[in-house]
Amino acid sequence: MPANTAPVPFRPHPLLGHPHLMTVLPRFRPCASLLKGVPVEARLFTVAPHSQILGHCHWQPAPQRCQTVVLLHGFEGCSGSHYMLGIGDKTWRAGLNVVRLNQRNCGGTEHLTPTLYHSGLSADVAAVVSELAAKDGLGSIWLAGYSMGGNLVLKMAGEAATSAPALHGVVAVSPNIDPAACVAALERPTNWFYQRHFLTHTKARLRRKAVHFPDKLDLRLLDKINTLREFDEIYTAPDGGFQSAADYYERVGARHVLVRIQVPTLLITAQDDPFIPFATFQHPAIRSNGLITLLAPKHGGHCGFFQQPRRDEDAYWAENRLVDYIVNAEDRDADRTDRA
User: Fold this and answer.
1) By CB neighbour count within 10 A (0-12 exposed, 13-18 middle, 19+ buried), where does 146 fall?
2) Do 280 and 186 form a contact (C-beta atoms < 8 A)?
3) Which sign, positive or negative, has the C-alpha torsion 81, 139, 151, 278?
4) How confident is the model at residue 3 (pLDDT cuts 50, 70, 90)?
5) Which domain, by its residues, includes 285?
6) How many CA atoms lie within 13 A of 218 on its CB side?
7) How far apart (Å, rounded) are the C-alpha atoms in residues 66 and 138?
8) Contact 286, 274 (CB under 8 A)
9) pLDDT at position 26, please?
10) What domain count does the chain have?
11) Residue 338: pLDDT above 60?
């Protein structure tokens, strides 16, 4: 978004007016051509004692001269999720370094940590930013996250405030800044499909992890769990040091630290998101923090935003706004300086 230019408005594809269709169908996008021919380096980042996460890095020929975007996927996603490939392809071809991160245990990395992953592990993101700045000499790092990943990058930016000088900005798409509200929405009868999908994949991941850490994980109760809330009560909360699922949900939401964010931040969410209630984005910090921009079209589903055909860009509206926001950051900074 060049200075003084409004973002391209979202106009939903005429065949995807329902939020469930908008949420589900874009996930079937063709991905074979994304990042094709782009060099990739697999890299392990140590984020805590005995814990590593896997990143797939795409470097420009002179990495230190370029901006870098660190991408973080959503719940039960991975570095190979369709939106991670889509954003990675667009940002790399726009001249940025790209790091597609897996959260703990994701992307086939259950063996790299004895812990589970959860929505509060913003310190993992901070560790990656710190390493890229100190070891690789990268001085302009952006964070971009979807859904759960969106909460994590916002939480990291708020917690860091001004203590991470290499961090230049954040973009979060459909972030679950209030996990309790999200879980409650998933428990509605109309959202049974999403709950079942997430729970099936979460249980399967825990079983894979138990192969590597059989003495740590007790699977005897797993088959009796019917909701994500129950899973978090029995497994996620105790593993993460929380008293209960309710304690976990309350403590990890990025809404608590939005007011402390000190870098340009773009929030993209749809008012018809099936399980990220739009009411959570009425938080006072979003209105009061002048560094936060909220784009909230009436439609878009959860991380969908599949727009009607255009001649000047592809159908993935949120990806395009994310890339625009980062690429044109210098223009916005110059415009603010001129107006000051």
Assistant:
1) buried
2) no
3) negative
4) very low
5) 19-186+254-329
6) 7
7) 8
8) no
9) 87
10) 1
11) no
Q: What is the CATH number of the domain that holds 104?
A: 3.40.50.1820
Q: How many CB atoms lie within 10 A of CB 306?
A: 23
For residues 7 and 321, the answer to whether their CB atoms sit within 8 Å is yes
DSSP strands (E only) in the chain? 41-48, 51-58, 68-72, 97-101, 141-146, 167-173, 265-268, 292-295
Owner of token pair 């790209």: 98
Half-sphere exposure of 105 (CA within 13 A, CB side): 23
**pLDDT at residue 2, rounded to an integer:** 42
> What b/e readout covers 159-196, taking b as 16+ CB neighbours within 10 angstroms?
bbeeebebbbbbbbbbbbbbbbbbbebbeeeeeeebbe
Stretch 218-225: mean pLDDT: 94
Contacts of 242 (CB under 8 A, 6+ apart): 236, 248, 251
Instruction: Give the model confidence (pLDDT) of 261-270 as tens digits.
Output: 999 999 999 9
**Residue 123 vs residues 11, 65, 166: alpha-carbon distances, Å:** 37, 26, 15
Degrees, nearest 5: CA angle 212-218-221: 135
In-domain check, residue 8: no
pTM: 0.95
In a domain, 274, yes or no: yes
Q: What is the C-alpha separation between 146 and 175, in angstroms, rounded? A: 6
Identify the three-state secondary structure at position 88.
Answer: helix
CA distance linking residue 10 with residue 284, whole number of Å: 25
CA 309/CA 11 separation, integer angstroms: 9
Residue 90 lies in a domain: yes
Contact by Cβ (8 Å): 122, 148: no
Please state the separation of Cα 34 from the chain's center in Å: 19
